[in-house]
Amino acid sequence: MTLVYVETDESGQVQLTSAEALTFARTNADVLAGSVLEAAVIGSLTESAHKQLAALGVDRIHHLESADLEAYSAAAWAQALVDIAPETGTVLASGTPRGMELMTHVAVRIGERMAANVVAADDEGLLRQVLGGAAFERLRLGGDLQVLTVAGHACNPEETTPTTPEVLTHSPEAAEEDLRTRVLRTEVETTDGNDTTGLTQARAVVGAGRGVGSENGFGEVLELVDHLGGALGVSRVVTGLGWRPHSEQVGQTGSRITPDVYIACGISGAIQHMAGIEGAKTLIAINTDEESTMVQRADYAIIGDLHEVVGAVNEEIRNRRG
Amino acid sequence: MDILVCIKRIPDISGQITLNESGTNIDDSSLGHTTSAHEECAVELAIQTAAATGGTVTVLTLGPAEAVEQLRAAVGVGANDGILIEADNPEAFGPEDIASIIGDVIRDRAEEGQNFDLVLLGNDAADTGDFQVPIRLAYDLEYPVLTGIQTLSATGGSGGSGAIEAHGIGPAGTEAFSLELPAVIAVQEGGIDPRYPSITGRMKAKKARIAEYVAPEPGAGNPRIGLELPPEKASAVTILGEGRDAAGALVDILEEIGVIRS
Amino acid sequence: MASIPAQASVVVVGAGIVGNSLVHHLAELGWSDIVQVDKGPLPNPGGSTGHASNFIFPVDHSREITDLTLDSVRQYKELGVFTQSGGYEVARTQARMQELRRRMASAKAWGIESHLVTPEEVVEKVPFLDPSVIVGAFWTPSVGVVDSVGAGTMMRESAQKKGALTVSPNTEVTGIDVEGGAIARVHTTKGAIETDKILIACGVWSPRIAAMAGAAIPLTPAVHQMISVGPVPQLAEQTGEITFPIVRDMDTFCYERQHGSDMEIGSYAHRAILHEPDEIPSIEAAKLSPTEMPFTDDDFDPQLEQALELMPDVLSNPDVEIRYAINGLLSLTPDGAPILGESPEVRGLWSAAAVWVKEGPGVGRAVAEWMTNGLPEVDVQGADIARFHPHQRTREHVQARTSEAFIKTYGIVHPGEQWNSDRNVRLSPMHEREKELGAVFFEVAGWERPQWYESNAPLLEEFGDKVMDRTAEWDSRWWSPITNAEHLAMRERAGLVDLSSFVIFDVFGPAALDAVQSIVLAQMDVKIGRVVYTPVLDEAGGFRSDLTIMRLSHDRFRVVTGAAHGMVDVKWFADRLPKTGAQIADLTSSWTTIGLWGPRARDILSQVTNADVSHEAFKFGTARTIEIGSLTVLASRISYVGDLGWELYVPMESGLKLWDVLTEAGKEHGLVPVGLGVYGTTGRIEKGYRAFGAELDSDRTVIEVGMARPKVKSQNFVGRDAHLRHREEDPKAILCSLTVDDHTSASGEKRYMLGGEPIQSKDGGPLVDGHGHHSFVTSAGSAPSLGKHVLMAFLPPAEAVVGNQLTVVYMEEAYPVTVASIDATPLFDPDNESIRR
Q1: CA of A69 to nearest chain B CA: how many angstroms apart?
Q2: What is the complex's ipTM, to 2 decimals?
Q3: Contact yes or no for C313/C234 (Cβ under 8 A)
Q4: Measured between CB atoms, does C311 come within 8 Å of chain B?
Q5: Domains defined along chain B, listed by start
Q6: Is the pTM above the cut of 0.90?
């Protein structure tokens, strides 16, 4: 049996990443010893989530909702998952911060090992991303119950013959000590400082690297962002130099983005940065160095100075608008 | 508040990776070594928090003898002293082993009279990305644990009786937590800018007091079988042209994708 | 993707300061179809130029390097990328102050303005320096910084604008085809280029590229550590890249250089950290650039502490952070000189490697001229790639010597300094005997040569004050009065000299006469058995070499030349042989040579041979084969020490036997073993014999050194036209011998010059010759037979008057000297009676 922890968004929809994790669980059912697919949803379970889970082939839904679980506390949520976990098989979640944290707690609580960011499973064991996705580690967990997280984009969400999952409702109570790490409050900030959703949700992201030259070199790039109604993403060098805030950083230790198009301007393509953009559907590079990693990995590239090229692109967009 | 920061020596990679001959690890012979960005932030947070509360910062690592360089680097930016748990073969240890060895050392220090109110770690190591040691260590110590924390504000004093407020990015915004100490916190980059060492700092680092332990044999061990590099993808790039002349072609593509605001 | 031209007149590998300067000068000299490749991107492809500190201190003890530096500064200024800052070389110790006084001699000798200043004067310009740490400094106002990447870009683009150059960045050389011993083709990641010339100017990677053609460029990548700290408030108030003088902390092998509001601290004090060219990370795998290797803190910590002592106010500020720290790679060679010119191993393979930013444009010009005209305008013979003997091209030798030399970058190096590493590589057959005699060995070209013999110490008593002993430590370092005693014993009786290190090669074949005739100045159509001493000139009439040639038969000539320069001579001859009819055979390792000289030389030789060695039967300047016991010996009656005697050539394996036979026979005549101290210095200097590399170089004409013969042979030879022209002109300088009249220094201690010191007028004014060169001592040494210390120097013709009173400046004190000879007339035995008797 496989139990998948499913995350939902504010409107109660199943998160894309969780859909990926469910698909991974179903398509790898053989190796994961998970002929039965269970989903765990903490908090409200909407009608549309129910439908989505059915479409993704879930056989059973655990709906966990109680006062103790209302605010997030990793320990309490993890214990609730442990209480419904199968004896053998697999417990998994997507490789989001929540998924990582909960699965580690679960693994410790049931005395098993854990593998983060798994991308494939076969008879030889698991394959997981390391070095921000620049390399893979093959490993074998052993144990009766495997605990893992599935890396983002490890597979595409795939619907299957719809099921009619039964819903088991639980109202767990948490131990006092598991509530010590409860979220006290959540501050939703909209100012430029901490708008973490802009980058990850934008359809178009314009990336800027050391090639912009200075703190004052973002003029053309920001204009292009504006033309595209998109977001600015920068490399770690740029935040390291203090040119832009960390919230705009894309990469292994910044945001991982999934836009329709990513335009990398003056970014050579260090692995830490590439780790954050592998979800981009179309990759366009503007760089002076034709041999740079970014150009080589791109779908399209223009060779040249980014200020000159981006300036010309802005001009062209303005002209076409008339 | 006395703070312990656990850091890890990792190869300083930014480009192409090569593996060693047996394929079990990265070939780091021509690479420098560093600590993860998350850990640099953890050290900085520790220094600022200790300064605000009149406490000390100790850095700890499990690694080869050379890992003392990373401890010294942390002392160079303001940590007070270091603990090296020497292991020639750090790759043989799994997250369970590392957490339990660190737990033992923390208990040993406590017996020696050095009690840490707060244990900081990086959210995950940039090389192995296991995401486990902070949580496993917290269970080992029976402390509460938070991950993904970017800023801290101390609300109590020294001696394990204090409390701390911690902030990190959650799915819906910045989440605030309040923790009784002692606690374990895994730090994520982004809330704070780590400083560079000063020359006097570096001088201090050279003379830093480093307590040394020898790591026991690994228990659970590392579940790793080997490393693999993704197959080198042949470049499929279409060069649209050079310089400003290619701007038109690029705008065509953006129009096709449909991302230009009307 | 831009394709690469299929053909090129030359493929230049490297787009650092050297490669860029080369393509510029080649284009200026009329070259077209040049292709320049670099495996990195432009404008900074990731080599050593990209992380260079870019400052230039013009004064170097080597005149050749100084000339290249001055030319480079001129070119940087023309490009508008030179910013003058001035520079201090500060001394923390008295020993270092003495070295700075010696540096003053070099500055004056090369005509560069410099002054010795007090700590207080340093602080006036560098207020954040702690004066209590230093005892003085050497101030050079013309020190400055350059933008080497900018200069390179401008030079590259000038060649492109001329239409002479195709530049291909991101293009790696993958192979070189050699056909018939010559370059045929260069393979790159963007295609193959047909060419007969490749110019390797890619710094630390040069050995790797040369190896693709089977050639050696013996350099090693080595680490120079550098950090940048900032922001420094004291500097932040300033505008521009550099407003404070650069400080070289000579005792700690560090420098401190302002860069805007940051301070760069560089060091040569750490252990030598050498790398292999093949192990330098690729551009893709490097974090910064391939030559900016990971910093190793531990190696730098002591330097940091010393920098802190020197500039405490600036560097102890906790807000001044270490922002950038690298183990930067640069190129080191076993003898410290660059590696320039065409490889003796592969025709068409040119090297311009191991060049610093301060010499880059000068080297670019020189090598471009060399490729175009066969020789550069400035003398770069000390950097000729052909100089290396086989063992000097090995990895082992390069690593051993560069490791040893590393700390000498700012070290105090005595002119007689000997190497400790990689010794005993070439031993003469007499070596064991020499060791028994307490020989003190000096090394040249791998050969262990006795400089003097401790077994001759009893001679000191015999000759008493005549050995001209020295008390000052610096003057007597790498020196012994035994040399002077050996000299006197030879002059009185006889001396035996091991000359195994000679480079010996035969030119033979039906066209051998024409070949040597066309290469050397002297008439070579001489009787068989004649020995001819001759200059070898370049096209401009400057010296390429001086050597002796024996005509052994109608079609065989044996050339004998010195060890240090011999490999270059071999290539010079080989390059100028006719296509057919003459060949060269290097016999250096086949023959050993023992010199036997002194008034008793004939008595000794006649005792061991039945041959008639009388003056009449065996004339000076002839050679013939004689029997000595069971040995067949080629005896050549010439002398470089000014006494009757012979050079005796036998096969290496018989050298020991000959030595023993002569030693035994010499006992009753008072024969002593004599070291190279006599052969190379005392014997020659009192005879006024010129030495290549000291008096003779490509800047000097035959006329200026007083070696012109009455007539010029009618046959053509290299440099003949220029030589004829020189004979018609008034010389611009004249080589003179001078004697030191009083050695007493201000402290009362007698001091003895070692060479390199400026010669000034009696009242201390500079002497400048017609070339614009300042007069300086080219050779210095005891002349024990005269009881004088003799100096050789080129003087302006007006000053070249016997009896003229001048001064020599040694350690910043002036000593009176008198011009004793203004031509090749020897001071000892002016009529050469000792030789011709």
Answers
A1: 15
A2: 0.91
A3: yes
A4: no
A5: 3-214 (3.40.50.620)
A6: no
